[in-house]
Structures are given as C-alpha cells and as structure tokens.
Design a protein that fits this description.
The structure holds two protein chains of two kinds.
Chain A: H1 2-24, H2 30-49, H3 55-73, H4 78-97, H5 102-113, E1 121-124, H6 136-149, H7 185-197, E2 206-209, H8 210-224, H9 228-252, H10 259-286
Antiparallel strand pairs in A: 1-2
Helix pairs in contact in A: 1-2, 1-3, 3-8, 4-5, 4-8, 4-10, 6-7, 7-9, 8-9, 8-10, 9-10
Chain B: E1 11-13, H1 23-43, H2 49-73, H3 85-122, H4 130-153, E2 165-167, H5 176-204, H6 207-229
Antiparallel strand pairs in B: 1-2
Helix pairs in contact in B: 1-4, 1-5, 2-3, 2-4, 3-6, 4-5, 5-6
The chains are: A mainly alpha, B mainly alpha.
C-alpha cells in the first residue's frame, strides 16, 4: 500500500507537474525536479502511514493522492466514465450490504480480530471555536466537549488524538467509546445519537475512505469537462448524498457504503442539469431575465 | 465536449482597454456578485456548523426548484427572443413556484425548531432565542441568494476571463458581465433578507410581512422583464 501511494505520487504527480511546467514555462532543470519530486513522494508516503505527522499534512497528501488518481480517471471516454461510476456504486452497495459481500466479510473479520481495517482513510477532525454561542448551539458544543473530556487524554483543543471514541463513516464500523464512564454513558449516548442524527458526530473524527473521495472527484471532474453549471450542481448533489449517508449511518449504526447515494444523486443531477437546466438558465441569463 | 454559449444576439466588440480585461476582470465580476454573501458567510455563518448545513441544504433546495421549473419549461425552449411576452409568463410561474417553496421551507423549519427545542429541554439548556431563529432564516436566505448568483451569473462568466468583452444593446458602454453581476448582487440581497422577513412574518402572523416578500420578488423579476422588452 505504501508502494502504491509512492507510485501514484511519483509518476502520476510527476506527469501533471511536467504538464504544468511545460504550460507555464517554469525554469527548472531535470535534476532539481527529480529531487523535489522524489522528496514530495517520500514525505507523502510517510504522511499517509505514520500518524505522528501534523494532521494538515496528512490531509493534504490524501487530497493530493485523490486528485491525481481522479485526474487520470477523467481521461477515460465520457460514456465509459458514467457507466463505470454507476457500476461501482452498485458494486459498493452489494459488497457492503449483502451477507456474502467481500467488503462486509472484511469488516467483520477486522472486528473479530479487533484490528483496524487496512485502507487509506481521510480523517476529518472537528475544529472547536471559542466564541460564545447561545441557545442550542451551546448545548451541542457542550455535549461535544463533555464527550471529549470523558477519559480522552487529548491535549490541545484542536487535535483530538486517535482513540476508540471516534464516529466513523462508511466502510468503517461505528464503534462506541470504550473509555466512557458507566454512569455518564446513558446521557452521552442520547446526545451521541441525536448529534449524529443531525450529522455532527459527537467527538473525534469522521473517517471517509479515499476510494470514495476519488470517485466523487471523478464525477465532478467529468461534470467540469462539460460546463460550470454541472460542476455546481454535482458538487451540491454529492454533499447532499454525503449528508444522507451520515444520517443513515447514525440510524443503522453499522458499516455503510458511501458511494451509492452520492453517486446516484450526482449522476441524476448531472443529467438533469445538462438536459433541462442549462437551456433554461442560459436563455434567462443571456437575456438578463432573472428571478 | 464543451458547451458553447451563444452570445450572438449581443453586440460584441473588442474593448479599448483589452490588455487589462483579463483574469482581474473575471474575478472582479465574480466578487461583485458574491462579495457581500461571502462576507456574511465568513463572519456570521462559518462560526456555527449548523448554519453551514442550513446554507448547503437551502442551496440544494433552490437548485431542485430550478430543475423542476426548467423541466416544466423545457418543451417551450428555446424561446424566440423577438417575442418577449413568453418571458413574462416564465417569470410569473417561476416566482410563484419559488414562493410556494418558501412556504414549504417554513413548514420544514417549524418541525426542525420543535426538534431542537425538545433537545434543548432534554439537556436542560435554554431554548432557541429569536436571534437564533433569525440566524437560521438568514442562512437559508443566503443559500438561496448564493445559488442564484452562482447559477445565473457565475456560470456564464467564463468568457469574461478572456481579452475582450461583450456590451449590452441598450447601454452600449456597459459590459454585459457587469450588468449581470450587479443584477445577481441585487437578487442575492433580496433572497437573503426576504427569507428573514418571511420567517418573521409567518411566525408572528403578520400579513403585511407575509405579502411583502412575494410582491418584492415579483416586482424585481418583472422589472427585469420590462428592461428586456423596452
């Protein structure tokens, strides 16, 4: 897995860097370029595998890997890309939810062995802001902070250490914290389920598999190759799909596939926008008729 | 395959200061349409995650309403721009549909408010203050306004990044993109604050407020139409 991310960063990243150098006529010689590229790739491998790096570096490198793979996927012909996305969404649905699905077996095996699933995951850590809210925002924030204080040895406010008290999204099972005290757990769990019910995760990070990232990016990239309006529409559709998936995660409390809902919304909105919306909006905005 | 937007009905000419009509102009037009919305977002909305979710969902709702409208009007497009009355019908139906949707948004918001109040009671925290309710309404309106600016102005703004510009027919000195951005700015403001006014009107049962919003929306749309037809 380290080798594959090294290859992605080195070769795919190198190709794109070469395109950019050629386009903008950047004055750089090949030896410097090789050294820089090799360092970039090596640091990337370490960032992705060691959890001791600053989270922003790890996140940046995961986003870079996702972007590079997605860029190369968009070079496929148009119909191939759409059929591939739909087929992958269906496969994801089958593989995670069916009892004989390979991903479900993998998740169950990892749980029975009490190990982490070996995969590239993007971890989004929440940022706590310190200004005075009012009303229910305080309620949510306090429940958040209370969960974190329960036995988590987290040092700074902005960096919640990886512990078992994490709300994880698709492909990774939602694990209830084993560090929570007995008498607090009843209150905490209702807060937990409500906060998860409105998509805000109680404490810790939300994890999303990198494969999901890559296919969302492929969808938006393919939409971008048509027009800007499709990009905005598909972006909103994917965010909506992600929200729905998180809500389903809170409801069902088991590993869920992240691809199907977002890809379904994304593809639907792309075709609706391209066929219906574009004519309408272009007609209106070119004649400066707005509402 | 890139879609080509048909600008042929505008009078096109290379602008005299073509050297500076470049990326700066494009960014300028985009910021003109979206600047205040962005400022509102960064100062007020980004502090509270719930408001960010509200903005995103109201943007999505506006997009869905626009898709439904375009689905309804698709068989009649492309409209012949010589006869301008179809645009009037278009505007009236669209405004009516969007105001209906605002009512629906209000109903969903009431249910959400009950849920949040019940949660606040359960954790023994104070209920939603009126400021909070207005903030949620503001976030909803901002979502609508930003979606309007993005879909009507930013999506046709791509040619503005090139070396020349288009001028409008009626005012031959004004670039088309400038007019488009200013109208988008006006509408973004209308959408943002009419949501606040409408929610206040619905919650207080104030008929004047309730009627004020659709009327303003309709008048703004029709004023655009009259500019077109004159």
């Amino acid at each position: 897995m380290g080798f594959s991310s090294f290859i992605v960063l080195l070769f795919l990243g190198g190709e794109i860097a070469l395109f950019l150098i050629r386009k903008f006529s950047v004055p750089i010689d090949c030896f410097t370029f090789l050294v820089l590229l090799f360092n970039f790739a090596a640091v990337g491998v370490f960032a992705v595998f060691l959890s001791k790096m600053a989270i922003i570096v790890t996140q940046g490198y995961l986003v870079a890997i996702g972007m590079l793979v997605a860029y190369w996927f968009t070079l496929l012909p148009e119909w191939t890309t759409w059929v591939l996305l739909v087929a992958l969404a269906l496969y994801d649905l089958a593989a995670v939810l069916l009892p004989v699905g390979p991903l479900r077996l993998l998740v169950e095996l990892a749980i029975s062995r009490d190990e982490d699933i070996p995969a590239l995951v993007y971890e989004a850590r929440p940022v706590i802001n310190h200004d005075q809210g009012s009303g229910e925002y305080e309620g949510q924030r306090r429940a958040w902070r209370r969960r974190r204080e329960l036995g988590n040895d987290s040092e700074s406010d902005h960096n919640i250490g990886t512990s078992d008290a994490e709300v994880t999204a698709p492909l990774i099972q939602n694990r209830v914290s084993s560090v929570v005290d007995g008498q607090e757990s009843s209150v905490a769990s209702t807060d937990n389920s409500f906060l998860e019910g409105i998509g805000l995760g109680s404490s810790g990070a939300i994890k999303l598999g990198l494969g999901d990232f890559i296919f969302y990016s492929v969808l938006v990239g393919r939409a971008a190759m048509y027009d800007f309006m499709t990009v905005y529409a598909c972006y909103l559709a994917i965010i909506a799909g992600l929200g729905v998936t998180l809500m389903l995660l809170a409801l069902y409390q088991q590993a869920l596939p992240a691809l199907p809902v977002s890809i379904a919304f994304g593809v639907l909105f792309y075709f609706l926008t391209r066929l219906l919306l574009e004519e309408f909006v272009v007609q209106c905005s070119l004649n400066l008729v707005m509402f | 395959m890139k879609k080509k937007v048909d600008f042929s009905h505008l009078s096109s000419s290379p602008s005299p200061e073509s050297a500076i009509i470049t990326v700066a102009a494009g960014i300028g037009y985009a910021l003109l349409a979206l600047g205040p919305s962005l400022a509102l977002f960064v100062t007020v909305i980004s502090k509270k995650p719930f408001l960010i979710l509200t903005v995103l969902s109201s943007t999505l709702l506006w997009l869905v309403s626009l898709i439904v409208l375009s689905g309804f009007w698709r068989p009649f497009l492309p409209l012949n721009s010589a006869a301008s009355w179809p645009f009037a019908v278009l505007i009236i139906t669209s405004v009516a549909f969007q105001e209906g949707l605002r009512l629906l948004f209000w109903k969903v918001y009431k249910r959400l408010e009950d849920m949040l109040d019940a949660f606040a009671d359960r954790v023994l925290k104070p209920r939603l203050y009126p400021t909070d309710k207005m903030l949620i309404a503001l976030a909803g309106g901002l979502g609508h306004g930003a979606a309007h600016a993005v879909f009507f102005c930013l999506s046709v703004l791509t040619p503005a990044f090139g070396p020349a510009t288009f001028f409008t027919d009626q005012c031959p000195k004004l670039p088309f993109f400038l007019v488009s951005s200013i109208i988008a700015l006006a509408f973004a403001t209308i959408h943002t604050f009419s949501m606040v006014i409408a929610f206040n009107g619905y919650s207080d049962g104030n008929k004047v407020d309730q009627l004020f919003v659709p009327v303003v929306h309709l008048v703004a749309g029709m004023v655009n139409y009259f500019c077109l037809s004159s």
